[in-house]
Amino acid sequence: MPGAEADAATSYAYKASLIGSAHRFELTEEGLSWHIAGRSGLWRYDEISAIRLSFRPVSMQQHRFRADVSRTGGGRIAILSTSWQTAALMAPQDSGFRDFILALHARMAQAGSRAELTAGLGRKTYVAALAFLAVLTVAMAGLLIRALLIGEFAGALFILGFAALFAWQVGGFVWRNKPRSYSFDQLPRSVLP
Predict the structure, then answer these.
(1) Fewer C-beta neighbours within 10 Å, C or N terminus of the chain?
(2) How confident is the model over 27-46, as pLDDT tens digits?
(3) Domain range spanning residue 139?
(4) For residue 124, what pLDDT band results from cuts at 50, 70 and 90?
(5) Which residues cross the membrane (predicted)?
(6) Interatomic CA distance for residues 158 and 160, integer angstroms
(7) Where does the chain show beta strands of DSSP type E?
(8) Residue 7: pLDDT above 60?
C-alpha cells in the first residue's frame, strides 16, 4: 500500500523513558510538527538551523542512534532510534527512524533549507576522546610489557582480552562518531541504522 508507506515515513514516535508519554513527530506540508511531554510545536523546514546525527549506545541498547534538530532563534529536540518497552527492554526502531530522518532531509532540501548538517561528536569532544584513548593505550601497553617481563602470562592474556573487547566496543563508537559535515543528498551511513 503506497499510502501506508508514505504515512510511515512522515511520522515517527518513541518513548524516551518508561514513565511518560511518547515523543511524536510528523512531517507536514508546513513543517516538522512535534509533541513532547505535553508541549507541541511546528517548526517550518526553513527555520531548522542545524541537524546533528550521531551514534549513541547506552547500556540497555547498544545499537542506538540520535538526531538533534535545532531551530533558528533557539530550541532543540532530540529524536532517538529506540523506545522503552518494559523496565528491562528498549526496542530498536531502526527502519522507522531511518525513513523519518531521510524524509525530513528531503523535505528540508525541497524547502531550500540552509541548515548546518553535521554528524558525529563535536570536534573538541572527539579530540579529547582520542587523547584519552592514546593515554589509555600507552598505559595498557606498559601493563602488558610489565606482565610479560615478570612472567605473569595469565595477566598478559587478561590485558590482551580486555584491550580487544575495549577496542571493539569503543573503537566502533569512535569510528562512527567521527566529526564531519554532510549534504542533504549524502547522509552518512555510519550514523544511521
Answers:
(1) N
(2) 999 999 999 988 999 999 99
(3) 123-173
(4) very high
(5) 126-149, 155-175
(6) 5
(7) 11-14, 23-27, 31-36, 39-44, 48-55, 65-71, 76-80, 82-86, 89-92, 116-119, 180-181
(8) no
Q: Which residues contact 48 (CB under 8 A, 6 or more apart)?
A: 32, 69, 70, 71, 72, 108, 113, 115
Share of the chain above pLDDT 90, in %: 69
Domain shared by 116 and 146, yes or no: no
Residue 54: exposed, middle, or buried by beta-carbon count in 10 A (0-12, 13-18, 19+)? buried
Residues 71 and 151 in one domain: no
Q: What is the mean pLDDT of residues 165-177?
A: 87
Q: Can you give the pLDDT at residue 52? A: 97
Strands 48-55 and 65-71: antiparallel
Q: Report the relative pairing of strands 48-55 and 116-119 from DSSP bridges.
A: parallel
Which residue matches cell numbers 563508537? 173
Q: How many CB atoms lie within 10 A of CB 9?
A: 19
Higher pLDDT among residues 13 and 169, named by residue: 13
Residue 82 falls within a domain, yes or no? yes
Residue pointed to by grid coordinates 531511518: 98
Return the pLDDT at 17: 79
CATH code assigned at 11: 2.30.29.30
